[in-house]
């Protein structure tokens, strides 16, 4: 199912707007990953473990968005916005939220 941040899909006229759809994922921080990320911050480099968690959470949020679109009878999502928020006690969790408009193209 196509997902785009643009309000339209070139070459695919929108036949019907079906409503706003969302996908949200909350992941907890891992103590060992945090510890190694702190060390990496001190010595430099990228925090690959965090990057993998972030990419996986984003993928899951988009998959939820697509599933909700499909349940409304849609076959594409336009105008997608991705938001990231640190939540929980001491910022111990990360929330990834994907919001868009379900459409029939």
Tell me about this structure.
With about 100 residues, this protein is α+β, with helices and mostly antiparallel strands. It contains two helices and three strands, in the order βααββ. It has helices spanning about 30-45, 50-70, and strands at about 15-30, 75-85, 95-105. Strands 1-3-2 form a three-stranded antiparallel β-sheet. β2 and β3 (about 95-105) form a beta hairpin. The longest helix is centred in the middle third of the chain and has 24 residues, at about 50-70.
Question: What secondary-structure arrangement, pairings included, does this model have?
Answer:
Blueprint: E1 16-28, H1 31-43, H2 48-71, E2 76-87, E3 93-104
Antiparallel strand pairs: 1-3, 2-3
The CATH class, by name, is Alpha Beta
CATH-defined superfamily: Hypothetical protein apc22750. Chain B
Unreliable segments (pLDDT under 50, ≥5 consecutive)?
Answer: none
Strand order of the largest sheet: 1-3-2
Helices, by number, come to 2
Q: Classify the beta-strand content into a percent band.
A: 35-45%
| Rg measurement, Å | 17 Å
Written as H for each helix and E for each strand, in order along the chain, the element string is EHHEE
Based on helices, strands and strand pairing, what is the structural class? alpha+beta
Mean pLDDT: 85
Distance between the termini: 11 Å
Number of domains: 1
Shape: elongated
Annotated CATH architecture: 2-Layer Sandwich
**How many β-strand stretches?**
3
Do you know the CATH topology?
Answer: Translation Initiation Factor IF3
- How would you characterize the largest beta sheet? 3 strands, antiparallel
The helical percent reads 25-40%
Organism: Aurantiacibacter xanthus
Pfam families: YbjQ_1 (PF01906)
Family: Belongs to the UPF0145 family.
Protein name: UPF0145 protein D2V17_03210
């Amino acid at each position: 199912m196509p997902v785009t941040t643009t309000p339209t899909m070139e070459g695919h006229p929108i036949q019907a707007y079906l409503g706003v759809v969302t996908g949200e994922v909350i992941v907890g921080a891992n103590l060992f990953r945090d510890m190694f990320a702190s060390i990496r911050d001190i010595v430099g480099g990228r925090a690959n473990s965090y990057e993998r968690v972030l990419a996986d959470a984003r993928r899951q949020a988009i998959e939820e968005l697509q599933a909700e679109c499909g349940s409304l009878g849609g076959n594409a999502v336009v105008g997608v916005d991705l938001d990231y928020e640190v939540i929980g006690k001491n910022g111990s969790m990360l929330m990834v939220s994907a919001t868009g408009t379900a459409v029939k193209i």
